[in-house]
Amino acid sequence: MFSTSSQRKFWTFSDENELGRHREKHNLNFISKHGQHIDEYQRPVEGFLIDIKTRCNLANPERLRTGIDEFLEKVFLTDACLLYAPSQIALAAVLHAASKEQENLDSYVTDMLFRDAGPDKLAILIEAVRKIRSMVKMVESPARERVRVIEKKLDRCRNQENNPDSEIYKRRVREALDEDDIPHGAGRMSLDTSGVSQMLSPSAS
């Protein structure tokens, strides 16, 4: 599969020298953009270390999943979805979850993820994320017991004909499927044969 995939040209090299040239090129690009405050002896590896360390810390997505889910549940209780882009809300959720796990992704976001965004766009993004997190922080989640009571009331008020779990809904689906199985001309055929039956009846002779 790999030999015929579109990724082959990106991950196949003629020899180790070609791979080394690519590595040196990208390392120099990183140094030129982010190496002002890095010691000259650390520059060749610092860029790779930052990226690898961050990726390793986030290698287990289940660590952040709980925090992300909790954040997104609270987001829907605010006006954030009407004011900010989904990508900004998603980033705020990830940063919130990472913060709960004692991980700081600020440098990764600013120096790696959005390093080409420019100071103006980066400032707008940072401000958007800050406001989204503030909005979520102000939300007070209702007690679970109160939520259960409300859910029971709503379930009693629900139109069971539109509830996929109700017997009424399932019966309507079965009836619709049964109707689809009947040939389209069956109705007309019964009307046509009724006339023939009358002609063959004893009273017609």
Unreliable parts: 186-197
**Rg from Cα:** 32 Å
Derived from helix and strand composition plus strand pairing, the structural class reads: mainly alpha
| Biggest sheet features | none
Q: Please write the string of helix (H) and strand (E) elements.
A: HHHHHHHHHHH
Fraction of residues in H or I helices: 55-70%
What would you call the quaternary organization? Answer: single chain
> In what range is the share of β-strand residues?
under 5%
How many helix segments? 11
Form type: flat
Average predicted local confidence, pLDDT:
75
How far is the N terminus from the C terminus? 79 Å
Overall number of strands: 0
What's the gist of this structure?
The chain has eleven helices and no strands. The protein has helices at residues 8-11, 16-34, 43-57, 62-75, 80-83, 86-100, 106-113, 119-137, 144-157, 167-181, 186-200.
Q: What keywords describe this structure?
A:
11 helices; 205 residues; mainly alpha; flat; 0% strand
What do you see in this structure?
This protein is mainly α and 205 residues long. It contains eleven helices and no strands. It has helices at residues 8-11, 16-34, 43-57, 62-75, 80-83, 86-100, 106-113, 119-137, 144-157, 167-181, 186-200.
